Automatic annotation (TrEMBL):
Keywords: Metal-binding, Zinc, Zinc-finger
Positions of the PHD-type domain: 140-191
Protein name per UniProt: BAH and coiled-coil domain-containing protein 1
Family annotation (CDD domains): BAH_BAHCC1 (cd04714)
Keyword Ubl conjugation: no
Species, as recorded: Aegilops tauschii subsp. strangulata (Goatgrass)
BAH domain mapped to chain residues: 21-138
Disulfide bond listed as a keyword: no
Amino acid sequence: MAKTRPPKKILESYTIKGSDKVIKPGDCVLMRSADTSKPPYVAKVESIEAAGSRGTNVRVRVRWYYRPEESIGGRRPFHGSKEVFLSDHYDVQSADTIEGKCNVHSFRSYTKLDSVNAEDFFCRFDYKSASGSFVPDRIAVFCKCEMPYNPDDLMIQCEECSDWFHPSCIGMTIKEAKKREHFFCQSCTAENGKTTENFHEATGQSEEKERCYGSDACFGPVVDPFKRERS
Ligand SMILES: [Zn+2]
Ligand SMILES: [Zn+2]
């Protein structure tokens, strides 16, 4: 006996059960993980549809954000605790698994937040889940250790070359760095002593350093120096 399935109905919004939070396509949400010991998944809602009659059985088509530990390369020292990658991995999930709304900020706007709440995340890389590669595959690096900026770590800026430094990489405590009103890095101090005349010419333009972060192979040499200070 052929029975026609009820037609899918596209919904414009969905209200999270037991709350007044309304989810719309384009919103970012936290979705319950089957493993309750794990933090909720972060996803972007692409569309919402009801398969059952009377608008029941609501399903959401989502695009997953991966946490660094879910990526092939794993979590790196420069990954922030609230960092996620926009993946190319789509899925259809029951709307029942939505726990709440969240905000995935651009890196720039995340670093400008006055306070970071539990629902605040940031994304600076797209992630290809099949190959484990990132877009962009190059990112600016800072400090003597040449690491990308981790917004969880305090850094101090040299007033001359504008590079940023981890206090631990320049033999300073975090307390000292916070109190410091002026800071000139070692190489700027050294150059200043030697060549006072063309000092500004020599260092006025700081070259932006970049490193390849596109694939596993590229991570190695840059991460190594960082390990030194963590061990
Ligand atoms: Zn450093
Ligand atoms: Zn400097």
